[in-house]
Design goal:
This protein is α/β, with parallel strands linked by helices. The chain is about 40% helix and about 15% strand. Helix 1 crosses helix 12 and helix 5 packs across helix 12 (about 320-335). Bound molecules: phosphoric acid mono(formamide)ester.
């Protein structure tokens, strides 16, 4: 496979920002890298180069897979967190994002940022911060999950679904809310709606009343479905939702009331979510599907979002998708910042 420099220097904050052909190129390269993990001809394309990972929030998969990706491409990933910097915030004096971004661009070949949940005062603040880093950086800027999107998770989801279903066009994915005690961000769910509809899947969204997602994301998902002649629907009837779908994605997300008066109201979100205990993906509901795969970005809130039986069943592809984070990240890093 021949790679051009067309994606060099490109940031990735949401997959919807990239052309479908560009996403296809990433997925093709990710698969080739997965098949030839340590011997791919791009294995040294980040040799002697550093990728910065700036985490406002904790992570298992994202940090570990980006570090492994940099290592497997011959480079190094450096972990940064707010306490290791002196950045200006609404409450404290410090360095501006403009200055930090311009300086970091002199050291590294790429910068990833994660910011969500309790680290932002309102929905949209994480997106604004990442876009500000992008504006002032001369290196690619990646979202490693922010309040609105999680692009690398979306790519790993699609890679996993392609591996297990082959053809995605016309397949039905159910995105279903699950109760839970974590008050989860919207990022993985919203990214998945966009990328699944982009790749020709029909999308069914199910949740209890009061858990609407970002209307901008819904409009874009509808448009993607229309462009592919696929259906998009929203239902609040859980049993109806599972009928005949090929993929079930069960995940908790916060209500639109999660941020108020510049604060993240986590305890009240959890209290409210735990009143909907019937919203759990279980074996009985999976029987209504068309022998569906179960997908989840992890960490899984077992016993709340989904039963152990479903999460650990032979139809669950959660570990394959988690592994694919590594491969899609290697592919995007190689294409946007690698030398070859
Ligand atoms: N899916 C995901 O981003 O996992 P982490 O929060 O562990 O990075």
């Amino acid at each position: 496979m021949k790679y051009t420099n067309a994606l060099q220097g490109k940031s990735l904050i949401c997959t919807q920002d990239w052309k479908k052909e560009e996403l296809d190129l990433v997925l093709d390269l990710a698969l080739a890298m997965k098949e030839n993990r340590y011997d791919h001809h791009l294995k040294d394309c980040l040799k002697n180069r550093t990728f910065f990972m700036f985490f406002y929030n904790p992570s298992v998969r994202t940090r570990q897979s980006f570090e492994a990706a940099a290592t497997e491409l011959g480079g190094h990933a450096q972990f940064l967190e707010p306490k290791s910097m002196r950045l200006k915030t609404e409450k404290t004096a410090g360095e501006t994002i403009e200055d930090a971004a311009k300086v970091m661009s002199r050291y590294a070949v790429g910068l990833g940022v994660r910011i969500l949940e309790d680290k932002i005062p309102y929905y949209g603040a994480g997106e604004a911060l990442i876009r500000e880093y992008e504006q002032f950086s001369s290196i690619p800027v990646f979202s490693m999950a922010h309040d609105k999107y999680h692009p690398f998770q979306g790519l790993a989801d699609i890679m996993g679904l392609k591996e297990h279903l082959q053809e995605l066009k016309g397949k039905k994915v159910l995105m279903v809310w699950g109760h839970g005690g974590l008050a989860r961000s919207w990022c993985s769910v919203q990214e998945h709606l966009l990328i699944a509809s982009r790749f020709g899947m029909s999308v069914r969204l199910a949740y209890p009343r009061g858990y609407d997602l970002d209307s901008d994301v819904i409009e874009k998902t509808k448009k993607n479905c229309e462009n592919n002649s696929q259906e998009f629907s929203i239902t609040h009837d859980m049993d109806e939702a599972y009928k005949d779908v090929h993929v079930v994605y069960s995940r908790n997300w916060m209500s639109p009331e999660a941020y108020q008066d510049g604060e993240f109201h986590k305890p009240s979100e959890i209290e409210k979510a735990m009143k909907h205990k019937e919203w759990i993906c279980d074996e009985e509901k999976m029987k209504l599907t068309s022998h569906a795969l179960f997908i989840h970005p992890m960490p899984v809130d077992r016993g709340n979002e989904v039963t152990d039986g479903v999460a650990s069943s032979s139809r669950s592809i959660i570990y394959d998708v988690a592994e694919n984070r590594l491969h899609v990240q290697k592919a995007v890093m190689a294409l946007t910042m690698g030398k070859y």
